[in-house]
Please model this.
Amino acid sequence: MDIAPTRSRLPTCPLSLTINGTPYNLDVHPWTTLLDLLRSDLELTGTKKGCDHGQCGACTVLIDGERMNSCLKLALTLDGASVTTIEGLGTPDRMHPLQQAFVEHDAFQCGYCTPGQICSAVGLLEEGHVHSRDDIRELMSGNICRCGAYTNIADAIEQVLASRPGESHREAVE
Ligand code: FES
Ligand code: FES
Model:
């Protein structure tokens, strides 16, 4: 069955997005999720598809600074938004502090959940509601790790939390 020509005749809509600091003017089908736009259309495959149903957190990105499951967002609802994916947080030579902490704490095994874990942790720290290790575990509970690297993930996030200016977290957890 010839699917591609049929899909190409279906209507698309204009969409303007900034992704990792780069402006994009796109034409997308109305049913395209942000996750599929990133991975399939723009080849930003750092963001992972796990469940595709909002249950695992593997697809977490930052939309206007807030962590979101990109599999649950229709791309067209985000016109004018600014999206940050794992590719936009840092590079191997200049890692984001959370990326560095994940490496230092060996906070992954297969790595499939890791981009979502790190993007979620960036959003978590910006939300300002985390003050203890228990908070980290509770507020990261939407990000599933099938390898069970939770202890090291919490260690990595705790290290970055403790290093933030004015953060009294260290006293809170001791
Ligand atoms: Fe989006 Fe699982 S792929 S929550
Ligand atoms: Fe394998 Fe988390 S490191 S799923």
In short: The chain has a mean pLDDT of 92.
